[in-house]
Amino acid sequence: MTGSGTDRTRPAVQAAAPIVILVEPQLAENIGMCARAMANFGLSEMRLVAPRDGWPSGGGLKKGATAAASGATHILENARLFASAAEAVADLNHVLATTARERGQMKRVLTPAEAMPEVAGRVGGGERVGILFGRERIGLTNEEISLADAILTFPVNPAFASLNLAQAVLLNGYEWFKTTGGEPPFRENNPSPPAKREMILSMFDYLESELDLCGFFPPGKKPVMTANLRDILHRLDMTEQEARTLRGVFKSLVEGPKKARLLARQAGEPEQSED
Amino acid sequence: MTGSGTDRTRPAVQAAAPIVILVEPQLAENIGMCARAMANFGLSEMRLVAPRDGWPSGGGLKKGATAAASGATHILENARLFASAAEAVADLNHVLATTARERGQMKRVLTPAEAMPEVAGRVGGGERVGILFGRERIGLTNEEISLADAILTFPVNPAFASLNLAQAVLLNGYEWFKTTGGEPPFRENNPSPPAKREMILSMFDYLESELDLCGFFPPGKKPVMTANLRDILHRLDMTEQEARTLRGVFKSLVEGPKKARLLARQAGEPEQSED
């Protein structure tokens, strides 16, 4: 998967969306990768709570983050800095907290796929919704999780539940984008309409009559062999263009040897094969 | 999101699953991150087609990949090497190719969420299914995509469609895990059952009678104010434990001042507040 699918002539998705809040992220590269994952799915507002190495604290951090963001620099440039998670959520209406382990809090526990329809309803109704993501190694503290209305967790292999920070952001963005009607960048490229049945049946008739002339069907076997052959070819679910192509293939196989012999005779060459 | 959710006492998910085929991956770190994403969602078989720097070509590459794999080393150790994509899919029954841009091929185009139910059916029926992922910058060639039965693409922001290689692997693994019944590692932690209505109504009666004694309701306003208050508190959708806690809070507010005054009188101290 590469940048080759990015179409800069198409407008960026910039509608209201959940806010991604990274609490004490340790690595600039991870902040950049989160920005990239956000851009992939139309999230644009990032908040940073006390990043370990400051923000922006000079070329080093910004640069590492910018490289990892792969072009999602508008998100990094607009990221707002807060001293605590409580301050980062103060102006929000609804808050979700991500965690990979149970915290014994009496909150609803949702997967991103379950949470995003409700989040979309709230955002659509004008609410500001934030999602808290914890530190790379130790996640969110219980006090930070207490700030939230509900817990977000991921369906993962319980024997290997460690998700990278940017991947946790990615899965939420992905479900957000799916929930809000996000479509893949392209669909089937079939300019030709599906073939009508009569076109297919006419091709079958042609093929079977030619096979008959070739002595393909052993005595008494034609009905069952014809049925089997039709079963195979029906499965192709062809477009009109494909049905024409396939008929052309059969016709060429039938007529080609005849035509080749005719051309050879006209040129006075000896025939390549016996009649 | 951190390793803190990983429970090594729980069995690794090791059932039959799709095979991840990385075609000419450039960076060892990306190979490692793909292995980690696979492990998160129960995928275990990786194939590498001509990795740029060889495999294993010495400590450098293996080490970079191993660090990024965050413990998913069993996947790297068992990864098989092939010279071409055609060789890597030779023993498979069904092949999907990922791409972020249209290739003009007459193939079905599916999102991971659309593809995985069919993939699960095939894998469950004993088929070997592979998913091809292209080079970091330029993806798969058209010839490599021709090897596939269908195209996989992602619903992404068209103005920012560039997915990192490991994230493309992650989204497929995530949808695979969801489709095959993957559950989050924990759910709500509510040992207490939901409160029965009579418990809630009894609490309301208690609260309203005490508020009446305090002169809370202006003349004639009690019915409408009571209804509003009940609307607010019903929304809590309490467990039995929570209903008991909240009743205790009201009771303490009612009795606390009385009790404090009583205790103060017993101790011969002057009262803190007027009656």
Structural account:
Chain A is of the alpha/beta class and 275 residues long. Chain A has two domains: 15-179, Alpha/beta knot (3-Layer(aba) Sandwich); 197-266, no CATH class. In chain A, 45% of the residues lie in helices and 10% in strands. Chain A has helices at 28-40, 59-69, 73-77, 85-89, 112-124, 142-145, 165-179, 197-213, 222-234, 240-266; strands spanning 19-23, 46-49, 80-82, 94-98, 108-110, 129-133, 150-152. In chain A, strands 3-2-1-6-4-7-5 form a seven-stranded parallel sheet. In chain A, helix 1 (28-40) links the parallel strand 1 (19-23) and strand 2. The radius of gyration of chain A is 31 Å and the shape is elongated. The relative contact order of chain A is 0.12. The model of chain A has no long low-confidence stretch (mean pLDDT 87). The interface between A and B is large, with 75 and 75 residues. Chains A, B: It comes from Bosea thiooxidans. Chains A, B: Residues 19-171 form the tRNA/rRNA methyltransferase SpoU type domain. Chains A, B: It holds the Pfam family SpoU_methylase. Chains A, B: GO terms for molecular function: RNA binding; RNA methyltransferase activity.
User: What's the total helix number of chain A?
Assistant: 10
CATH architecture of the largest domain in chain A: 3-Layer(aba) Sandwich
**What is the number of domains of chain A?**
2
Oligomer: homodimer
Helix content of chain A: 40-55%
Shape of chain A: elongated
Radius of gyration of chain A: 31 Å
Total beta-strand segments of chain A? 7
Family (chains A, B): Belongs to the class IV-like SAM-binding methyltransferase superfamily. RNA methyltransferase TrmH family.
InterPro entries (chains A, B): Alpha/beta_knot_MTases, RNA_MeTrfase_TrmJ/LasT, SpoU_MeTrfase, tRNA_m1G_MTases_N
GO molecular function, one term (chains A, B): RNA binding
GO biological process, one term (chains A, B): tRNA nucleoside ribose methylation
